[in-house]
Design brief:
245 residues; four-stranded mixed beta sheet; 10 helices; alpha+beta; globular
């Protein structure tokens, strides 16, 4: 299994803005912390307890980024906002928000990029690429404090995935909560996807990703635990069945 040298370099100080720039340029060639809160009552006047995800957001809004990022991601997957297949879409629209952000950053329109990122992060504060682009946007605006905040969020989210396993076996699979996380990890490892297969094992479900190393041409197989995505789909289908009845 290849060493994560590239990832360690990318997570080092001074490298994240450069990564954002490279991703923007690559896409061209081929936020302010804003969060969506649930209603304080259930429509009948009864108070609703905040979700675990909302409790994390309160801590983050108060400047605390020393959180358990793995649990933060899991908490989001338990919230009503969770959609493992649509984290990059602008709320209520079909547009790819990150494409709009990249276009704004290419035009050095940092204020517009930050505004779009507000919407994306309000929907999902675990959106890794949105935090990466927010670093570039706020550095462009000269807002060091916000750039550093998003740098901390980006590092914490990425590290939490790499800390979950090495991907070599189902037992040591990377634990992800979205398709975007899977492909972003492959991107960081400079791997190009060749094939994807669903592998049930030990009561869990895994995506076995066959990929090619962009530097050596070596073929690599990595396992990603996709139980959270399956739980989302099962819940969606169950709710659909109840509606039909």
């Amino acid at each position: 299994m290849k060493e994560y040298t590239t990832v360690r370099k990318l997570l080092a100080p001074g490298m994240l803005a450069a990564l954002a720039t490279l991703m923007i340029l690559a896409a061209a060639c081929s936020g302010t912390k804003s969060t969506t809160k649930q209603s304080p009552d259930d429509g009948k006047g009864a108070a609703v307890e905040p979700t675990r995800y909302e409790l994390y957001l309160e801590r983050i809004e108060n400047g605390d980024t020393a959180i358990d990022f793995a649990d933060f991601r899991m908490a989001f997957s338990e919230s009503p906002l969770y959609n493992p297949y649509g984290s990059d879409k602008l709320t209520g629209k079909d547009e790819d928000g990150l494409s709009l952000v990249r276009a704004a950053l290419n035009d050095s329109n940092f204020a517009k990029a930050a505004e779009i990122l507000q919407g994306l992060l309000a929907h999902s504060y675990v959106n890794i690429r949105a935090h990466l682009y927010a670093i570039a946007a706020y550095e462009g605006l000269g807002d060091v404090t916000k750039a550093n905040h998003h740098r901390s969020m980006y590092r914490g989210l990425v590290k939490s995935i790499f800390a979950s396993g090495d991907g070599e076996t189902p037992e040591t699979a990377f634990v992800v909560i979205s398709t975007d996380e899977t492909y972003y990890i492959l991107h960081l490892l400079e791997l190009q996807t060749v094939q994807q297969a669903l592998v049930p094992h030990g009561g869990s479900n895994y995506d076995l990703m066959t990929a090619k190393d962009g530097n050596t041409g070596e073929t690599v197989e990595l396992y990603f635990n996709v139980d959270r995505q399956f739980a989302y789909l099962n819940n969606m289908f169950n709710n659909s069945d109840k509606t039909e009845k």
